[in-house]
Design a protein that fits this description.
The chain is an alpha+beta fold and 305 residues long. Helix content is 24%, strand content 24%. The strands form 5 sheets. It has a 4-stranded mixed β-sheet with strand order 8-9-13-12. It has a 3-stranded mixed β-sheet with strand order 3-7-6. It starts with a helix and ends in a 12-residue tail after the last helix.
Length: 305
């Protein structure tokens, strides 16, 4: 039997997804149902199926790469004529083969008949119900919606309107799954699901850090020197923040519980406010005169020496 990588037309460093894709393409091209009466196509199809049984299975692929088994799946040195299934492990109906396919973060058992069902409109499991396709969408929500939760209405390809609940604390890149909201299943099978990939729009001044929020707060020179109360925006509305006298630019103050709201037993995050002393945009003659006459001398960069 030929090298299974050569049969599938992939390199030995090919990813699992690349191997599966190659098998699907070749199976569709050489499936006996599309080459009625062609014995060569049937033989080629069996060879493709056998190759995928080796390199499409993570465990078998490892053993083959290490030289522990041959291209037929037999231990090195094993003579199939002396035992085992007559004619090798792939004698018979190619639809009876089972393959193990590991994709993404979770292992999924993939049967050849399931792949054939996808490729040939359900002919792999004649007359049996199948789960419907899933509807997949990309949805962008505002920073406030992701933090506090909300509801979005989504129009499905079949014309239905579905109200999707946005859970509080949703993070950028997370996915929402609504079971049973996908396409109807063929031959009375269960409907598929609805999958929403979430993107969270950036906020003009809040930055999320876990359940905490961070922001820069511009303050005047007078507020920094004398201190006082200034309004600070939060997700639940503006609150008064007390600035201590003689506050330096870069000082960080905390507003407890003003970050991402509490949810699912988790406490609310905090809001960390970094003070940024900001001069007037237009030159101020009085401030310039004050600075020129100011007699205090100090070195703010002394610690950098």
């Amino acid at each position: 039997m030929r090298d299974p990588y050569e049969v599938l037309g992939v390199s030995k460093t090919a990813s699992e997804a690349e191997i599966k894709k190659a098998f699907r393409n070749l199976a569709k091209k050489h499936h006996p149902d599309t080459h009625s009466g062609d014995a060569g196509a049937k033989k080629r199809f069996q060879e493709i199926s056998a190759a995928y049984d080796i390199v499409g299975d993570k465990d078998k692929r490892g053993k083959f790469d290490r030289g522990e088994i041959d291209a037929g799946g037999n231990p090195r040195g094993f003579d199939p004529r002396q035992g085992g299934a007559a004619g090798g492990p792939f004698r018979g109906n190619p639809r009876d083969f089972n393959f193990n396919w590991t994709g993404g973060d979770a292992a999924e058992e993939v049967h050849a008949e399931d792949i054939f069902s996808e490729l040939f409109g359900g002919r792999g499991r004649r007359g049996q119900p199948r789960k419907g396709d899933s509807y997949e969408f990309a949805l962008t929500v505002s920073f406030e919606e992701a933090a506090r939760g909300g509801t979005r209405r989504v129009v499905l390809p079949d014309g239905r309107d579905v109200d999707v609940r946005i859970p509080a604390g949703l993070r950028d890149g997370q996915q929402i799954r609504l079971k049973g909201q996908g396409a109807p299943g063929p031959r009375g099978g269960p409907p598929g699901d609805m999958l929403l990939s979430i993107s969270v729009a950036p906020h003009p001044f809040f930055v999320r850090d876990g359940n905490d929020l961070r922001m820069d707060l511009p303050v005047t020179l007078k507020e920094a020197v004398l201190g006082g109360k200034v309004p600070v925006p939060t997700l639940s509305g503006a609150v008064a923040l007390t600035i201590p006298a003689n506050a330096n630019s870069g000082a960080v103050l905390r507003l407890k519980g003003k970050g991402i709201p509490a949810r699912n037993g988790e406490a609310a995050g905090d809001l960390y406010v970094k003070l940024v002393v900001t001069l007037p945009e237009k030159p101020d003659a009085e401030l310039k005169k004050f600075a020129e006459e100011w007699k205090v001398e100090y070195d703010p960069r002394g610690k950098m020496k």
